[in-house]
């Protein structure tokens, strides 16, 4: 008996196709709404940039570099450009291309249908080979049931991980123009870097899930053919059939454990992307960060000098502690400044 289901592939098509259609319908409005916002941010930023250049806290080269990035962002916010270089790239081109490179079929989740078909077919073959009205039929029948349950859970979990990553990617792409508009000015560019990291993390989850699906498809088919198929050819080899099911179920469980780790691995990869984009973000307006740190250091020094003056005038140390946030500040001396009238330190 051979079972050929396409349940997961059909479910993927039914769920994802409406989402992609709705995405395309929403992107035009979202991009059109965020373009004026980006232009307004750039206009305000140009005023501050001119002020910084006049005061010597920002160079013309830095301002031109930031203005070039802002121009690229505004261009990318056009619906056609955003659909081509963000939506289609991350939602269709990359997953579909790499799925074909991995040896996948038309649907990215078609391999899971193959695994499920093979597992259920092998379980049915073993069940049909069981001897009738025998005590050993009971444990073997229970083993068949357990194997079928493990196969359903493992395949269903892998499908859920892939589908969640796909839906999250669609949601991230929909709100992308909002965060892309924030990349137009240096002060809010870190939010765009975080959004891009999330997008890469979701796409990485899909790609790694596809790799595991294709590995599971080939390995599970080979293992079942080598163990369950050979054992079921001989009806008297009940232990061989049981061992074949146990090996196949163990492989499914191990692949499920690997799939469970995929989101964490994808987040680690996306963190590297975020730090890389944050580094580029720092290069574009490092002078501003340096000025902020300098101002903060000067303010801390001024507070320290004021506190020392107050203490020299006889203000109690508790008052100074209150001024510094309730704890001893770095500029407060830890040793007493003199001796008391009673002669005690």
What does this protein structure show overall?
This protein is an all-alpha fold and 345 residues long. It has two domains: 7-284, no CATH class; 292-323. The chain is 81% helix and 0% strand. It has eleven helices and no strands. It has helices at residues 7-55, 60-76, 79-101, 110-129, 137-174, 176-182, 189-226, 228-232, 238-284, 286-312, 317-323. Helix 4 packs antiparallel against helix 5 (137-174) and helix 5 runs antiparallel to helix 7. Residues 280-300 and 306-345 have low confidence and may be disordered.
Helix and strand arrangement:
Elements: H1 7-55, H2 60-76, H3 79-101, H4 110-129, H5 137-174, H6 176-182, H7 189-226, H8 228-232, H9 238-284, H10 286-312, H11 317-323
Helix pairs in contact: 1-2, 1-3, 1-5, 1-6, 3-5, 3-7, 4-5, 4-7, 5-7, 5-9, 6-7, 7-9
Mean pLDDT value: 74
Instruction: Write down the domain tally.
Output: 2
Main sheet makeup? none
The quaternary organization reads as single chain
